[in-house]
Amino acid sequence: xxxxxxxxxxxxxxxxxxxxxxxxxxxxxxxxxxxxxxxxxxxxxxxxxxxxxxxxxxxxxxxxxxxxxxxxx
Length: 73
Fold this sequence. Notes:
By secondary structure, this protein is mostly helical. The protein has helices at residues 22-34, 55-70, and strands at residues 13-15, 41-43. A two-stranded parallel sheet has the order 1-2. Helix 1 links the parallel strand 1 and strand 2 (41-43). The chain is globular, with a radius of gyration of 12 Å.
């Protein structure tokens, strides 16, 4: 994967509201990179499809982190 410089001060906040596959996560992060966004903040919120701190929620967090690292984010 191509490494991207971290030169954009915009840091979007995102909530994990649905049960995302790793492929969906890759698409989301590729879209961020296409817009020059190299950082993001994940935060928990109430009322989501995936219960907060469940095994699935933690797996999605891990997938975001691993994919972002692979993309140089």
